[in-house]
């Protein structure tokens, strides 16, 4: 997944023109799981998922709905939604809801958690990236690029993300399972919006929502391009007019630029490693999150949990670059939070900037919101 270059863009772009329809329906899940002695959900290390005892069969249809001949397990009880073809754990994920939504199951592993034994924001972002790429592959239109379609590959085009917003209600723990749904829609005439919903697989609780905007770049000239009509014809059958983050919850405000004078803390000398590169030979956008956190005060990292993150990508970064991470608090409203509301105000809010150390050009602007860990639901 690439980040956007700060270079000329031709054409009339309206990347904020995402459809404003109803938020995805959640409903209820019925799954079986074991209880640990301390009443916390734990899973068998041998039989993963909540469908203990299920047997896997190669089938073409389940409940009259075609599932592409994938290996599936019969799901106990009624499904969450009559239009959903989710029938249990599928190793590599599958298309559901009339092939508009891609769904994949993940188990939280030991190396994906932080000091508090819950998964990290970087892990969440990796799940978003993984499902986005697998969605393209499973749809049958994947080319030889990193998430590119066949028509994009023929034209040497790649996707670049311009903005992404992630809202987290709760971070899952080591050993728990989550279910990630992703889908796409048009964003204006020359952009694409991709959304995600992450649920706790055993309770059906929505724990994360995310939305993003994408445009196309020529991988050789590094210039942005209009979406060719041939690519639009590939994508349009998969567009679904649904939003994960409601309009009133969407972070559309401009992220202020930090300077040496306005930044409260700065961390310099951040150098990309070889393993930070993606297949398009620039830094994978998930890596930026770790660098952003380098300039966040340690007391905040210890006592608070990030509940929202908005990233605005402004240019590419390669292995030869050295970066600076800058952070400044923008809001402090402790004492005004309503612990019974999932939309309560943050205890802390920060503005961030990643920039090239040599010429001070911006790479990523970001805004984060944090809640005291004792206030977590």
Task: Summarize the structure in words.
Residues 101-233 form the Acyl-ACP thioesterase N-terminal hotdog domain. Plays an essential role in chain termination during de novo fatty acid synthesis. It is an enzyme of class 3 (hydrolase). Residues 261-371 form the Acyl-ACP thioesterase-like C-terminal domain. This is Acyl-[acyl-carrier-protein] hydrolase. It is globular and about 50 Å long. Strands 1, 8, 9, 10, 11, 12, 13, 14, 15, 16, 17, 18 and 19 form a 13-stranded mixed beta sheet that branches. Strands 2-3 form a two-stranded antiparallel ribbon. Strands 4-7 form a two-stranded antiparallel sheet. The protein contains five helices and 19 strands. 12% of the residues lie in helices and 31% in strands. The model is unreliable at 3-91 and 333-342 (pLDDT under 50). The chain is mainly beta. It has helices at 121-139, 150-154, 229-235, 287-293, 298-303; strands at 2-3, 34-35, 41-42, 56-58, 61-62, 65-66, 71-73, 94-96, 101-107, 157-168, 177-186, 192-200, 206-218, 224-225, 265-270, 304-313, 323-332, 348-356, 362-372. The longest helix is centred in the middle third of the chain and has 19 residues, at 121-139. The chain has two domains: 1-251, Thiol Ester Dehydrase, Chain A, CATH 3.10.129; 253-377, Hotdog Thioesterase (Thiol Ester Dehydrase, Chain A, Roll), CATH 3.10.129. A hairpin with a 5-residue loop joins strand 2 (34-35) and strand 3 (41-42).
């Amino acid at each position: 997944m690439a980040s956007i270059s700060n270079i000329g863009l031709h054409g009339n772009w309206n990347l904020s023109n995402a459809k404003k329809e109803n938020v995805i329906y959640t409903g209820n899940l019925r799954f079986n799981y074991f209880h640990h002695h301390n009443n916390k959900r734990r899973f068998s290390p041998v039989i993963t998922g909540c469908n203990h005892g299920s047997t896997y069969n190669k089938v073409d249809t389940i409940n009259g709905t075609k599932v592409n001949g994938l290996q599936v397990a019969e799901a106990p009880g009624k499904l969450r939604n009559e239009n959903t073809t989710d029938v249990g754990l599928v190793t590599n994920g599958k298309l559901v809801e009339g092939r508009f939504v891609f769904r994949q199951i993940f188990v939280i592993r030991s190396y994906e958690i932080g000091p508090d034994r819950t998964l990290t924001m970087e892990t969440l972002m990796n799940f978003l990236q993984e499902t986005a790429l697998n969605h393209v592959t499973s749809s049958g239109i994947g080319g030889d690029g990193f998430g590119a379609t066949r028509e994009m590959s023929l034209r040497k085009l790649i996707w670049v993300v311009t903005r992404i917003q992630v809202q987290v209600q709760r971070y899952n723990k080591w050993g728990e399972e989550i279910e990630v749904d992703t889908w796409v829609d048009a964003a204006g005439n020359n952009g694409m919006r991709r959304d995600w919903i992450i649920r706790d697989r055993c309770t059906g609780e929505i724990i994360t929502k995310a939305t993003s905007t994408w445009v196309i770049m020529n991988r050789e000239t590094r210039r942005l391009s209009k979406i060719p009509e041939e690519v639009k014809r590939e994508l349009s059958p998969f567009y679904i007019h649904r939003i994960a983050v409601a309009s009133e919850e969407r972070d559309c405000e401009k992220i202020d630029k930090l300077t040496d004078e306005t930044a409260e803390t700065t961390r310099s000398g951040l150098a990309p490693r070889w393993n930070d590169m993606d297949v398009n030979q620039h830094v994978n956008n998930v890596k930026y999150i770790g660098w952003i956190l380098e300039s966040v005060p340690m007391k905040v990292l210890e006592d608070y949990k990030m509940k929202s993150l908005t990233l605005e990508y402004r240019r590419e970064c390669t292995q030869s670059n050295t970066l600076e991470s800058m952070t400044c608090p923008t809001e402090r409203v402790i004492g005004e939070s309503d612990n019974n509301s999932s939309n309560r105000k943050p205890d802390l809010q920060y503005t961030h900037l990643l920039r090239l150390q040599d010429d001070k050009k911006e790479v990523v602007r970001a805004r984060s919101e944090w809640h005291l860990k004792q206030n977590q639901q």
